[in-house]
Amino acid sequence: MSKEINQILDWTPSARLAELPVVTAEAHRFGMRHFAVGVTIISSRDGETRAGLTATAVCSVTATPPRLVVFVNKNVAASDVIHKSGAICINVLASDQEQVAKVFSGMQEGVRGEARFDYGQWNTLVTDSPVLGGALVNFDCRVIKVFDESTHHAFLCEVLATCERSDGEALIYLNGAFRSIPQ
């Protein structure tokens, strides 16, 4: 397998800006609370092991080819499962799935690991990653590249299958709370 680096290697950051200090983690987290984002559950399976987490760090990269990027903390179990399987499903949640979002974010006391999949209806599409029924949309993907970004891995994914819901309101996260946005 080729270890091609698709980074612009002849680009140099501004030396003047490189000397400036970055904001504190607290200031960054506070600022990001004002950034309304869609809520997803990232799920993966490696053999009999399923893992998932609630995530908001998901972004479309290109439509041709169809690619998304997902940022996952290196310290969560799902990160290792995604690495081993090379597959991931990005489940974009509807407002009526707030409880599932809370379970997969660790807000439901005593529910960890496989027990999280007792919430919601789960099936599979192409990759064998868990697919949440009733989500606004599911993106079943293969991971094509992994980038090491400080505390997180950035998984660049190609979409192999989708499943959409024709109704429902979007679940978003803003100012430390789940909210819904009508379609």
Description:
There is one protein chain. This protein has 183 residues and is of the alpha+beta class. 15% of the residues lie in helices and 40% in strands. It has 4 helices and 12 strands. The strands form 3 sheets. The protein has a 7-stranded antiparallel β-sheet with strand order 3-2-6-9-10-5-4, with helices on both faces. The chain has a 3-stranded antiparallel β-sheet with strand order 1-11-12, with no helix packed on it. A hairpin with a 4-residue loop joins strand 4 and strand 5. The chain starts with 14 loop residues before the first helix and ends with a strand. The mean pLDDT is 93.
Please sum up the structure shown.
The protein is α+β, with helices and mostly antiparallel strands.
| Helix content bin | 10-25%
Secondary structure: number of strands: 12
What is the ordering of alpha helices and beta strands?
Answer: HHEEEEEHEHEEEEEE
Tally of helical runs: 4
CATH topology heading: Pnp Oxidase, Chain A
What does the average pLDDT come to? 93
Number of domains: 1
